[in-house]
Amino acid sequence: xxxxxxxxxxxxxxxxTPGIPIKCWCGERIKELISKTxxxxxxxxxxCRYAAQxxxxxxxxxxxWVDKAFTDxxxxxxxxxxxxxxxxxxxxxTITSGPxxxxxxxxxxxxxxxxxxxxxx
Length: 121
Ligand SMILES: [Zn+2]
Prior knowledge:
By secondary structure, the chain is mainly alpha-helical. The chain has 4 helices and 3 strands, in the order H-E-E-H-E-H-H. It has one domain (3-8, 20-120). The radius of gyration is 20 Å and the shape is elongated. The structure holds zinc ion. Residues 24, 26, 28, 48, 50-51, 61-62 line the site of zinc ion.
């Protein structure tokens, strides 16, 4: 799309999704590690820094496989895109029934959001 559409997605819209963990509930940041167990050799995972440093086991600090987190993330984005598509449909319906001046603005905003999400993906 045009340059003007990318400006609308520049700020604020990027939301941290629950797919890839960023912080543990305890306030510690998340570390990316590689599993060395026989069950999951070389499988990457996210782990709470606190728990990783103390080599905790059977705790309730964040632990999440990277591949699982990415699948979650993709599903979440897929859901977001579908919601946006619905929103665009609503906007389109509003445009056809609304006053002519609104046409351009709504369409560019709607497209901008969709393009922004697709590019983020
Ligand atoms: Zn923690």
